[in-house]
Fold:
Amino acid sequence: MATIVKHPELVDYIQYMTLDEIAARPKGVMDLFEDGTLIIIKDFRLPFDFGAIEALDNRLDQIEDQKLRRKLKKLEATAFFDGKPPVTTRLPGSLHTTLRFEEPLRQGLFDTLCRGDQAIFENARRALKSAHDDLNQIFQTCFPQYRPTRLISSLRLTETLFENLHWDNHSIDDDFHQARVFCNIDRRKRVWNVGHRCVEYLESIYEEHDLGRFAGRDPNLMLNYVAGDVLGGTREIWKDNRPRHSIAFDPGEVWLGESRMISHQIWYGERAMVYMWFVDLHSMDEPRKRFNARVEALHERMQQRAPAVA
Ligand SMILES: [Fe+2]
Structure:
């Protein structure tokens, strides 16, 4: 079970539930998730072959091809198993064989991350496909009515340390809902701090920071301002001295949360899978609880509260 230290001044929005408990609810955790609850799956560890992923070479900074390096840094787990199967070919003048992929990205990941080693590739492929199937099953159980329109199956292979407290900003101004599932696929703990939820915090600083100027605009602009100017961004990290709950997730542990609603920072983490499903708004339990609608409602509420100018 994750180790959690809860801050007494911060609302406790962390909930532990077993998959059986979630499956017994007709809505899964759709309602809780939309309310900004951080749900940790109780008594569950993703059965994951840690060794398979540890064998990958994660020294991405040493890849000379900049374009490939950028793509590998944003690698999706599906790149290991989606696409045409590779062709085995004999190396010229040798008894050894290698794999040839149709897609340059997959060839790149085989040549660099797997160092051209077929066993490393095969083990990673198998481990990630199995985890992918499990995470899809968890999605179905947790969000039984959600209609996903797209999946980003982000794979984090490198160390993350001391992020600033932030709400995710996907730089997408579309009005969308996301379902996010996180999994620690490392033998070490993954340490997060979580703080105020977005709308509550924005409300508390709304007048002081004249957030009304962002009304009717892309909510990401307001989040950029708050994360950078108010909370200090990555340069003035000491500014984000907000109360926070600390959580150390175990190897294989799985948790769910709307990362645009829940402020968070990875304090320390190695390998992880972060699955983000874009969800048809109309399949939400309550579409008015999606991120953009919550921000719009905040502006409306605050403008009604503002004293009329004579
Ligand atoms: Fe984040």
